[in-house]
């Protein structure tokens, strides 16, 4: 097995960059927009859904943090899977994640373009999508410090926005905001009760909330290019719990306490706009448009970065085209950046050419991709932890809680989510599509592994 090699990458990310990537990376567009569908389905019980999914994500991040602190690598979980399970596993999870992020780049460009055309109706969507693609492609081509600086300020703005929202919401709930009365528990127990649509609604809310957390893995990829990878990973993972609790669970609690869950605006305009409108905050819609735009651009920037580093790592380990491992100037894998941006741009074009066929298929194949990544992380951690305890216990700077019981509990939770996805018509297609992609990549990866091992056993191959 070839090792992930960070030697050619620049270590240009400072601790402040990594801290804000970890802090702001948890705040995505899915929280601001996608959570409306979850609230409409689950009602006030959406808080329980976010608690359950948040606990699962905390466990996954703890497992990933344990392995990444022990072996910082630009390929992150792909490298860990290869070390623990085999080259086929690293190949599979690495390319699944690359496809996920690359398609995400296109989807985020489309979303950001939609916000801009709302402000400038006479301009075409494709122009904004192309502009954003070029800006962040160039940003990622020049130096990793530029990516870090963009993410630092994007994350700062997102954190400020969500903090102000929570502060205003708490004041309103307490009846301390001028012009508002404390709502009490009227919205939590009224309008059909805490579980207005029963457990079926809670399940839909749970599935919605799980995928709102996607993207947290990027911080362990970025850590490999920071000044102190081990310290950076350890700090990011240890603060994951309160970040998830405050930003996600806290937001949901504020929203369903202040506005009725069945208010049409919650789904149509988004839950955050609905709350700000209820509190009579001037220009609430425009404010949230700015926040959503920042969240989309931040995710786009981070996805180009994360996908390019995964591709770089895969190529360096012989699991991808060798050109993707080349760096030119300033330690940037520019071929991998260009390949990711190109794929993202093609995805954007497909959304205009074949929105209901090819683009819809691409969205479906990434629908359950995060679960695939999390499953590989959990299995790799089960196998890696024993080896580290035996061979290098000093590298266990971050330890998974109650190992191995909570690792097995996390795997059981992921299995339960897969079962729930199979039962829901809207998510069943995503599960099948992602499953087909994963199986296809696993078969290719296993065939490559068998061929490589056969080549190593061949005298002629050794001589070459």
UniProtKB/TrEMBL annotation:
Q: How does it sit in the membrane?
A: Multi-pass membrane protein
Keywords in alphabetical order: Amino-acid transport, Membrane, Transmembrane, Transmembrane helix, Transport
Q: Where in the cell is it found?
A: Membrane
Give TM segment ranges.
21-41, 47-64, 85-106, 126-147, 159-179, 199-219, 240-261, 281-300, 335-354, 360-380, 401-422, 428-447
**Residue stretches making up the Amino acid permease/ SLC12A domain:** 17-445
What InterPro entries does the database record attribute to this sequence? Answer: AA-permease/SLC12A_dom, Amino_acid_permease_CS
**Domain of life assignment:** Bacteria
Residues in coiled coil: none
What this protein is called in its record is Amino acid permease
What organism does the record attribute this protein to? Answer: Streptomyces monticola
């Amino acid at each position: 097995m070839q090792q992930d090699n960070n030697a050619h990458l620049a270590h240009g990310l400072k601790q402040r960059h990594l801290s804000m990537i970890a802090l702001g990376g948890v705040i995505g567009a899915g929280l601001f927009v996608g959570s409306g569908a979850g609230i409409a389905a689950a009602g006030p019980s959406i808080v329980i859904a976010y608690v359950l999914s948040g606990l699962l994500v905390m466990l996954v991040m703890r497992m990933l943090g344990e392995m990444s602190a022990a072996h910082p690598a630009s390929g992150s979980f792909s490298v860990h899977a290869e070390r623990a399970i085999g080259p086929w596993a690293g190949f599979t999870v690495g390319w699944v994640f690359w496809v996920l992020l690359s398609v995400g780049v296109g989807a985020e460009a489309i979303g950001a373009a939609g916000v801009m055309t709302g402000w400038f109706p006479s301009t075409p969507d494709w122009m904004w999508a192309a502009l954003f693609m070029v800006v962040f492609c160039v940003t990622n081509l020049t130096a990793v410090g530029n990516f870090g600086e963009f993410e630092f300020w994007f994350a700062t703005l997102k954190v400020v926005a969500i903090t102000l929202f929570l502060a205003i919401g708490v004041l309103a709930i307490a009846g301390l905001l001028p012009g508002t009365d404390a709502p009490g528990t009227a919205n939590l127990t009224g309008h059909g009760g805490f579980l207005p649509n029963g457990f079926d609604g809670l399940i839909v809310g749970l599935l919605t909330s799980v995928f709102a957390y996607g993207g947290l893995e990027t911080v362990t990829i970025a850590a490999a290019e920071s000044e102190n990878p081990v310290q950076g990973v350890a700090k990011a993972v240890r603060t994951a719990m309160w970040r998830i609790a405050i930003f996600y669970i806290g937001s949901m609690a504020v929203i369903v306490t202040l506005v009725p869950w069945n208010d049409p605006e919650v789904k149509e305009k988004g839950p955050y706009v609905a709350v700000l409108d209820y509190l009579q905050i001037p220009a609430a819609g425009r404010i949230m448009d700015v926040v959503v735009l920042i969240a989309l651009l931040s995710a786009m920037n981070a996805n180009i970065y994360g996908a390019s580093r995964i591709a770089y790592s895969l190529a360096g380990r012989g699991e991808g085209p060798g050109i993707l491992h080349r760096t030119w100037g300033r330690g940037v894998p520019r071929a991998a950046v260009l390949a990711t941006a190109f794929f993202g741009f093609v995805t954007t074009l497909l959304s205009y050419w074949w929105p209901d066929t090819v683009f819809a298929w691409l969205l479906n194949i990434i629908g359950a991709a995060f679960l695939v990544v999390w499953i590989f992380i959990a299995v790799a951690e089960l196998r890696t932890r024993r080896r580290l305890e035996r061979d290098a216990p000093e590298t266990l700077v971050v330890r998974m809680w109650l190992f191995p019981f909570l690792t097995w509990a996390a795997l059981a939770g992921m299995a339960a989510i897969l079962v729930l996805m199979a039962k829901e018509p809207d998510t069943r297609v995503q599960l099948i599509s992602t499953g087909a992609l994963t199986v296809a990549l696993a078969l290719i990866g296993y065939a490559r592994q068998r061929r490589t091992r056969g080549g190593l056993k061949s005298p002629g191959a050794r001589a070459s």
